[in-house]
Amino acid sequence: MPIDVYATAGAIEKDLRGHACVIVDVLRATSVIITAIEHGCKSVIPVAEVEDAAIMARQLGGERVLLCGERGGVMIPGFNLSNSPLEYTEEVIAGRSLVMSTTNGTRAILRAGGSEAVFMGGFLNARAVAEAALSVSDSIAIVCAGTDGRYSLDDVLCSGAIISRILDINGKQSLCDLGRTALALYDSYNDDLFESLRGSLHFERLRALGFEEDIRYCLQEDVMQAVPEYKNGVIRKRRPQAAQTAE
Question: What's the longest Cα–Cα distance across the chain?
Answer without folding.
Answer: 49
